[in-house]
Amino acid sequence: MNQKRWIALAIAVGLLVLSTVAQITTTVATTDFTEMFQTDSEYSEEVVEEGSLNESVAVINVEGVIQSGVTGGVLSAGTYNHDQLLGMLDHVKESDQYKALVLNVNTPGGGVVESAQIHDRIVEIREADKTVYVSMGNTAASGGYYISAPADKIFAHPATLTGSIGVIMESINFAQLADDLGVEFNTITSGEYKDIMSSYRPMTEDEEEILQTMVDDMYNDFVDVIVEGRDMDESTVRELGDGRVYTGSQAAENGLVDSLGSLDDAIAQLKEDQDLQNARVVELNANAGFSSFVNGAAANLFGDQLRFAQLEEMIRESNSPRAMYLYTE
């Protein structure tokens, strides 16, 4: 390698080092370390409206696909975290300072079990004599509607996509492709149905019947949740619950939501309905702590690599069929 190429390589390495240092410096400079290492509470409050501390209204965001763990992959920041969400709901239920909750829902739904866990927490908060309103964002479909159903009132934007009442279970079957390529799969099971819904072979009629029975059971649970939460006739719910999505306006016409409006409208109406005009309104979040700083720095430095790792994780998960309360476009 001649001298000019060595100089060019040195310059490239130097620029890479300077870029890395600059990104780290930016992350450090924009980080509030005082708040980061604050350990008085597991949760932080961002004040939306000033008011009485002892009459607080909590706003909790449900953003992204509802599923266990932290969506978005390893070292991701600002993603859906199921355990943290459940913890915040428990915190609202147990703390005397919170008199009401506004759940800000923007999700296409997700796992059946996870959606049921959130739903149950909402029911428990109401049983603790605390009011729950829901504000629907761009999408509050399937599991997003499931978790909204037990609320005292539901607000939606006219253009919100909601509904999609039902259950979906799917997997990819590439048996024909494997046959065309001459690929053979050897599978040993302990029972006839152990590899049910396998991607490596066509599904039998018996297997389809078994899975349909499971989906029907979970759909019946979905219907019951709406019947109880919305005080609607079962026949009406089943008529509306054929899997289709509704706009917020259509949902209001069909009784699936109570009012059309924004998050601010939901908060204002709750304060008026519950005589909480002097209440402080806070957005509740889990304290990020030092791990968030590390994750943010890693995302800045290794963004492309992290996104590739997330894609690999999604592919692995797609090979594990599961029942979902999920709206898919």
UniProtKB/TrEMBL annotation:
Pfam families associated with the record: Peptidase_S49 (PF01343)
Which keywords accompany this UniProt record? Hydrolase, Protease, Serine protease, Signal
Q: Where is the Peptidase S49 domain?
A: 126-276
Protein name (database record): Protease-4
Question: Would you identify the family this protein belongs to, as annotated?
Answer: Belongs to the peptidase S49 family.
Cross-referenced CDD domains: S49_Sppa_N_C
Membrane-spanning parts? none
Give the range the annotation lists for the signal sequence: 1-24
Provide a Gene Ontology MF annotation, just one.
peptidase activity
Q: Does the keyword Transcription regulation apply?
A: no
Q: What is its EC number?
A: 3.4.21.-
Q: What EC class is this?
A: hydrolase
Q: Which InterPro entries match?
A: ClpP/crotonase-like_dom_sf, Pept_S49_SppA, Peptidase_S49, S49_SppA_C
